[in-house]
Amino acid sequence: MRTTNVIQPNSSTHSGKLSGETFATLINLSGRRRFTSQRVVLYAVLASGEDPDALATAREALKLFRDAHTALVKGNDALPGVFSDELHMAYFGPESGDKKIQAFIDLAERTFIAIESNWRQRSDFLKELIASTTPLLAVLNSITAIYEKEARSHANSVKNQLQDVMSEIQDISKQAHMVAFNAQIIAARAGNAGREFTVVANVMTSITAEIDKLVQAALSKAAA
What is the pLDDT along the chain (224 residues), one digit of tens a residue? Predict the structure, then answer.
């Protein structure tokens, strides 16, 4: 019997360093595992019925499933692997998500060999593979929900950071507006000697007004 090869995670990347695009990729890959696991079982059933192309399709689906799982757990140049305590617990804690997923991969491979070699036990392997589908989906759904939760948390964090930055810019804009206003008063008192200074003060006032508009627009989008 083949020994399950547990993937060692790369947990060095913190979720705060990830981009929204990365989170979208993680959720997509986690969803792909759910979809391809169903294809594995479906085409294994078809292959047992002597469909000539079904076994090759089943193996392609299993490869997609395995590659997605490896990328999610171990990571690569674009993805972080297991990056949070909650994910680590889901994969390697009491729920043993990684162990259950690896067991499904091993069972599928044994089932393919049994079907291809026309073993007498092929129907037993197939029944076991079919029976594993529902508990496996429960594991995959639970893990996908964690990725979605992490993505929402990240989005809220980015929104809060944007609001903080915009608020600081708004404060600076208010200070600049007061400086421009005081400069206009001083320039008016200076008469002809202050004309050029008045022009500069007016331009500064116009710029701070544009900054106010941009800040308000950004804050409105952040709050949406």
Answer: 444 444 444 444 445 578 889 999 999 999 999 999 999 999 999 999 888 899 999 999 999 999 999 999 999 999 999 999 999 999 999 999 999 999 999 999 999 999 999 999 999 999 999 999 999 999 999 999 999 999 988 877 766 666 666 666 666 666 666 666 666 666 666 666 556 666 566 656 666 666 666 666 655 655 55
Q: Is-contact 55 43, C-beta < 8 A?
A: yes
Closest CA to 37 of 117, 141, 145, 121: 141
List the CATH code of the domain at 15-154: 1.20.120.1730
Is 0.90 surpassed by the pTM of this model? Answer: no
* CA nearest to 37, candidates 112, 152, 115, 129: 129
Integer Rg of the chain from CA: 30
Q: Domain spans of the chain? A: 15-154, 160-223
